[in-house]
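User: Could you go from structure to sequence for me? I need the amino acid at each position, not a summary. Structure tokens:
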């Protein structure tokens, strides 16, 4: 059984973040939505991944799905990874302000935001979620958690693609195309692109 304290701290941070994320949801008037039908598949894939991430530590207590055990230094480093994912999500959401929405929709006053964390990647919140979940999966050392991260990453990629297609439709292809060309989707560039 892996060291329980870092796993507990990592998951407590994650759960506190999820609760705060949903409690602080403020509504901005909606102009258009992608619709539940178009959002159903990515929602299902992300939900499946979340179930795997959440159940992984409970299965570990029963000795199931363990691939490795982290030394204490690595375990606590993964708690910092989880914390950095949370920080990226918060920075992106605060920067986006009233244009944030949990679902794919066009809000009143919607525009392309390409400053702050949105200069690094087009979907910094999704990147932050992936970073958090990778930290938890490595922290657990669980095969189930790793599969959960893969599912969540796939679901967030699917959501990002839908969101980009929808925003191009709503804001005009020209409004979003330049941003897409100069800014990567989920992983920041290591080297700076020539201007």
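Assistant: Here is the amino acid at each position, in order:
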């Amino acid at each position: 059984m892996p060291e329980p304290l870092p796993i507990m701290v990592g998951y407590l941070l994650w759960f506190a973040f999820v609760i705060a994320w949903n409690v602080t949801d403020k509504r901005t008037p909606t102009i258009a939505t992608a619709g539940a039908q178009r959002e159903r598949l990515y929602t299902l894939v992300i939900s499946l991944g979340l179930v795997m991430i959440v159940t992984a530590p409970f299965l570990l207590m029963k000795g199931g799905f363990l691939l490795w055990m982290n030394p204490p230094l690595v375990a606590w480093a993964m708690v910092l990874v989880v914390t950095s994912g949370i920080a990226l999500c918060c920075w992106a959401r605060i920067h986006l302000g009233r244009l944030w929405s949990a679902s794919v929709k066009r809000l009143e006053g919607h525009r392309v935001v390409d400053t702050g964390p949105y200069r690094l990647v087009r979907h910094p919140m999704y990147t932050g979620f992936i970073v958090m979940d990778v930290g938890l999966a490595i922290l657990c050392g669980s095969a189930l958690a790793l599969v959960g991260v893969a599912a969540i990453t796939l679901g967030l990629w699917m959501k990002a693609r839908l969101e980009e297609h929808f925003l191009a439709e709503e804001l005009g292809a020209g409004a979003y195309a330049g941003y897409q060309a100069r800014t990567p989707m989920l992983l920041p560039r290591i080297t700076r692109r020539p201007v």
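One structural detail worth keeping in mind: The chain has one domain: 30-182.
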